[in-house]
Amino acid sequence: MIQNCCKRIALFPGTFDPFTRGHQSIVDRALLLFDEVVIAIGCNTTKKPLFTVDERVNMLEQLYAQEPRVRVVAYSGLTIDAARQCGAKFMLRGVRSTVDFEYEKSLADVNREISDVETIVLFTEPIYAHVSSSVVRELLHYGHDVTALIPPSMKLPLR
Q1: Which domain, by its residues, includes 136?
Q2: Cis peptide before 157 (omega within 30 of 0)
Q3: Positions marked catalytic
């Protein structure tokens, strides 16, 4: 067993409302690089989520129940503080476009300035580049089937 101080722990923050196949791809690929991935569900009071924080935590805990190297937490406040609380030295981010990249670079620069947490960017696989939580929420709102956009074994709470 690797000692906690030596473990490569990555924090993967987001609202994950809901978690998509693109998110799942990032986590799966990150598990090849890190000893542990902490999926951190942010509580953002400026957003109106479709699913409660508890529902999102439960969905992801069920999805990764058989993967002991994935942990799911909820947090509020600064993401960098959540990384410190989890013992993460890496911030994991997925990027779909150049717009995402510019935004993530700015955040990475600030985080590096105020902490010892390094940001690692994984580019979205092209097959998932069009998938976002916003698109999934919109489709759900209008009663469309989203099974192709979310992990196959993930069960969305009924609305």
Answers
A1: 4-141
A2: no
A3: 23, 47, 96, 133
Q: Specify the CATH number for the domain of residue 108.
A: 3.40.50.620
**Exposed, middle or buried: residue 133 (CB in 10 Å: 0-12, 13-18, 19+)?**
buried
Helices and strands counted in the chain (H then E): 5, 5
Residue 99 lies in a domain: yes
Tell how far CA 3 is from the center of its chain: 24
pLDDT digits (tens, 9 = 90+) for 105-158: 999 999 999 999 999 999 999 999 999 999 999 999 999 999 999 999 998 887
In which residue are the tokens 């981010």 written? 93
Percent of the chain beyond pLDDT 70? 96
157 domain-assigned: no
Residue 154 lies in a domain: no
pLDDT digits (tens, 9 = 90+) for 79-108: 999 999 999 999 999 999 888 899 999 999
pTM over 0.85: yes
| Token couple for 131 | 């998938």
